[in-house]
Amino acid sequence: MRTSLTMIVRNEEAALPECLGPVADLFDEIIVVDTGSTDRTREVAHKLGARVYDFPWIDDFAAARNESLRHATGDWIFWLDADDRLHPEDRRRLQALLAGLGDENVAWMMNCVCPLAGPGDTRTLVVSHCRLFRRHPEIRWQYRVHEQVLPSIQRLGGVMRYSDVVLHHVGYTDAATQRLKEERNLVLLERDARDHPHDAYVWFNLGWSYHLVGRSDAAIAALERGRRCLGPRTTYGPKLYALLVQKLFAAGRLEEGLRICLEGEAYAPGDPELLFQEASLRCELGDLGGAERCLLRLLQAPPGPVVGCLDPELTGCKARQNLAVVYMRMGRMAEAEAQLRALVAQWPEYTLAWRELAELWLAQGRWAELEGALARLAHDPKWSADAAVLAQEAAARRAAASR
Questions:
Q1: pTM
Q2: What's the rounded Cα separation, in Å, for the pair 72 and 64?
Q3: Which domains does the chain have, with CATH numbers?
Q4: Among the four residues 146, 222, 305, 312, which has the most C-beta atoms within 10 Å?
Q5: 23 closest CA partner among 127, 97, 75, 134
Q6: Contact between 78 and 3 (Cβ < 8 Å)
Q7: Among candidates 365, 387, 391, 369, which has minimal Cα distance to 378?
Q8: Which has the closest alpha carbon to 64: 53, 55, 77?
């Protein structure tokens, strides 16, 4: 089976070698659609083996991607953004996947790891994308922004499969650039919402963009509109519910948030983000037993493919940290300590857990263990001031006890 790599680009001369160089030889052809570059993007793409086509930018990402499909001749289509990277082990996995392709009506889903923007921000988001699919005249991209190809594949009876190939997207690490992208996206999404007022996917993305630029009331309104338009189980539906619940929580609308959260769990049973948020809501509402049950379910769930997007820490360190807090509030200090110890054994750099252990050991007068925790905190600029305060309090208590 012949394979085509397709890309849409604009002013990406610096990014293309690192993106295309490691993978160019895996494909029978490379199609690059340039939407108006003013740098050497076209020349660089040619040197890397691509056929380059010009396409004027018309404020529509789907239109540009469909132009790339129009020029592709392979049996299978794989797509990349210039900000995407494949590590060597994932290149090998992709090579094996491409070598085994047959004449199947399949869409291959792949996780894309996106580090988030912000000084000192170490968070990541894992997003599931349809990256590899059959070339077919009825398989086309839709939506001006946050474009999707999966709906047209599903309309043709295509089946989703999950690959172990992981991509790394480096386009979200600059906060200023990301803000400009969000402002651009808002304009396109508002146009899509006017043109498709009953499309839940459009309202979901519009709500997310409002959230990212700090317009919380508008985000809640858009997400509510999307919730009312949702059809049967979608890849984005659980995230729509989760983001709406998050915004309601932040607005202090806890009972409403819990009701919507439970509705979301009925829509997407076992969704980890909704389980995590249910635990947080129940904890805030005083239902500590309910919060404990949610967090235990989250920690005991077998790993599965990412559907939509997910903070990978939710099912690990954050769930265990929150369970420890629940146990503290219940007065079950030994169980809280056991959770925190398990947490730092697996994630020793998770400083918040050391902060909780320091508080616990300070209250119990366990000075030697406290000193170890304070040493950990002192080496983290975000927690060094807390370490100093706790050290002073420990010194005062020890002095008082010796009198």
A1: 0.85
A2: 13
A3: 3-169 (3.90.550.10), 175-287 (1.25.40.10), 350-403 (no CATH)
A4: 222
A5: 97
A6: yes
A7: 387
A8: 55
